[in-house]
Amino acid sequence: MKQLLLVFILLISTSIGAYTQSNFIDQLLISHEFFEKEMINLKIKKLEMDGDQANYGNWSWDVGAQIGRIHKDKQKYDYISSTDYARETSQDVRKISSDLSKKFFTNGSELNLSFDRYLPVKDEQMYDKNGYQKDQNTTEYLNDASISWTVPLLKNKDGVVDQRTYDLSVLDYKDEKLLLAETQEDFIEDKVFEFIDWVGFKWQIDAINKAINKLQNIRKKITKNKSRDIKVLTRFIDKKKRLLLSLKSKLKAQSGLLSASVKSIDLTKDLPTLPSIFHVDLINNVKRYCQANIRDLQRIDLELQKNSRTIKTYKNSQLADFDFTISASKNDNKGNYTSYSKSSETIVETKLVFSYPLSGDISNQVYLDKYRFKQRQIELKYESKLKDVISAIKKLKTDIKQGLIQLKLTQRQIKQHKIDNELDLYFSGQGDVRFAIIEQDDYQELQLEKIEILINLYKNKLKYNSLLDRLLPY
Predict the structure, then answer these.
(1) Is the Cβ–Cβ distance between 175 and 41 less than 8 Å?
(2) Are residues 469 and 185 in contact, defined by beta-carbon separation less than 8 angstroms?
(3) 3-state class percentages of the chain: helix first, strand second, coil last, to nearest 5
(4) Which residues of the chain are modeled with pLDDT < 70?
(5) Are 199 and 274 in contact (CB under 8 A)?
(6) Taking the model in full, what pTM does it have?
(7) Do the strands 321-336 and 131-152 form a parallel or antiparallel pair, or are they unpaired?
(8) Alpha carbon separation from 187 to 14, 134, 183, 193, 414 (Å, rounded)
(9) In terms of C-beta distances under 8 Å and separation of at least 24 residues, what long-range contacts does 208-215 make, across chains too?
(10) Phi, psi (5° rounding) for residue 135?
(11) CA gap 39, 468 in Å, rounded
């Protein structure tokens, strides 16, 4: 939907023949393959993050089966007991088992369910003190079913240890989004500089064209008996034409750069332009703005959050294992010996399990101390970056204000300049053509100076907005 909106905006701008800096940025964002590549990295990070969460809370189901045969041969000597014993036993083993478990993301608890079923068949030769009795065929089955739920009360309480990987991946994903936006903005800044240069060359060409046209009109008015003056004026016009050719060459090269950035741009129809009246939104409370909006600072803040999350894990890992478990199991057993037997047993159990190494966990303590030191390191990094950004923003703000003063002064000089005073004197026979040329040249230089100041202002505005991370339209 966002891309359709941008395309609609571009179509409107194309219909009226205006190609602004905003149009250029919008078209860069939807057309350049550079951003598609970076967006894939973000999608990969999102996939990894979702995978971590799904893996943590996933149901784990294991199914097993056993098929086997057991043979035993036992002989007793000097045996006087009247109790039978099995001398030879052949047993077929058939077993199926199933285990189902799940961890709960919100509290770190774990649910386990299991079921086992045995179907053994035994053939035994029974003996007592009087010797051999008879063959016994024994069939049995055994069903075991159990369910248990374990909740950590100290170590890993609320899943603080187990959830670390996922929590860090969430922060990594946020960092990847900021990195993508920062990469996009750096790219846009470079391309918009090219856009501004194109407009600057075009403005200069237009100004020099106007000057040449006026000088050519002046030359037409000079009578043939003043051929010397015509030659002087022609040399000056030729000088301006050489400057014009140089600027056109630069404009052509700049057009190639823009076309390479946005292949759909048609510079013969949609001429890049900038407002002739300069405006910029300057920030007053720079520190507060930076803390809330600057991506470089937000990324360092994410470093702090990741480090704090790691510290939280190692602090919790120092605690004892203290778990509460509630469980229930049922055992059904049926055997067929010389007499029929069957039993059923149900067990319900609640227990608290405590475990703690008296020697402590030295490795865990080392990592905890390491990340505590690192926390201060990152805090200092944040403070240093904040100072650098504020300093750079204030410098650009000063440069922009000075540029506005220069622009206002130049505009006043242009307004006060009497462009045709010497020219009128010349045509009235009271002046010299050289003074008329100088007068025209001074006026043109003021126009070019105004263009240069205005272009520099737009470049400083671009740097300023880039530092404030507000180049992107979203």
Answers:
(1) no
(2) yes
(3) 60, 25, 20
(4) 1-17, 32, 74-89, 120-141, 225, 335-341, 474
(5) yes
(6) 0.80
(7) antiparallel
(8) 24, 92, 6, 10, 37
(9) 208/240, 208/243, 208/244, 208/247, 208/444, 208/448, 209/244, 211/240, 211/440, 211/443, 211/444, 211/447, 212/237, 212/240, 212/241, 212/244, 214/440, 215/240, 215/437, 215/440
(10) -70, 140
(11) 23
47 CB-near residues (< 8 Å, 6+ apart): none
Residue with tokens 């823009």: 258
Question: By three-state DSSP, how is residue 328 classified?
Answer: strand
23: three-class secondary structure by DSSP:
helix
Domains and CATH numbers, the chain: 2-31+166-310+366-467 (1.20.1600.10), 64-152+321-355 (no CATH)
Q: How far is CA 372 from CA 310, 366, 369, 379, in A?
A: 9, 10, 5, 11
Q: Which two tokens stand for residue 391?
A: 């300093």
Coil/strand/helix, residue 272? strand
Answer whether 403's CB lies under 8 Å from 449's CB.
Answer: no
CB 159 within 8 A of CB 318: no
User: Treating both helix axes as pointing N-terminal to C-terminal, what angle do 362-416 and 433-467 enclose, rounded to 10 degrees?
Assistant: 160
Residues 12-35: pLDDT tens digits?
333 345 789 988 888 888 876 777
Calpha distance 177→179 (Å, rounded): 5
Question: Locate tokens 């050289």: which residue?
Answer: 434
419 burial level (CB within 10 Å; 0-12, 13-18, 19+): middle
Burial of 23 (0-12, 13-18, 19+ CB in 10 A): buried
Which pLDDT tens digit goes with each residue over 63-95? Answer: 888 788 777 776 666 656 666 656 666 777 778
Nearest to 56 by CA among 153, 165, 172: 165
Cβ of 216: how many Cβ atoms within 10 Å? 13
Helix (H) or strand (E) holding 122: strand 121-128
Q: Which of 309, 322, 271, 43 is nearest to 155 (CA)?
A: 322
d(CA 41, CA 180): 9
One-letter amino acid at 326 equals: I
Closest CA to 138 of 124, 117, 126: 124
